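Exercise 7.
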Amino acid sequence: MILSKFKISNKTAVTVVLASEGYPNQYEKNMEIKINVSDNVEKVFYSLSKPFGLQNIRTGWYFSRKPDIKLYKLHIKTKYYNYFAHQCAEEIIKNFPIDYVYNKLNAQQKSVCNNLNINQSDSVWLGYSYDDNYTKFRRNNEIARLCLTNYFKNYHDKT
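Solution. The predicted structure, written as tokens, is:
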């Protein structure tokens, strides 16, 4: 999801976050990538949890134009750093292209979503629906995010 400019009252240049989760890319491994972002983008995040289904291992990258006070307090002052999560990320990106899981599961995601009459999300682990049958899965809006992992597990257990 890329947010660049949107209106809040009379202002057009507001602070936004560019977040990239679960989107396959067309880049080759070890290729240098330069991303031009507008001046109003202050932070860029990339999470490995959705592209690789890492569940509770929260890892990825965070870039900001200015030092982040909260991260400074967490990483420097309290000396907290999750070395395990970092090592997992390093091993994954060393051994798999970023779109590995997407390429492996996208056809199954499409099939599962069609069978359940729900929409495919950008993350292969999820489908979504506006149907009232799924209201308990809604988060502050009309969209229900639905986990598909059990369908993949059942498929792989059979094969």
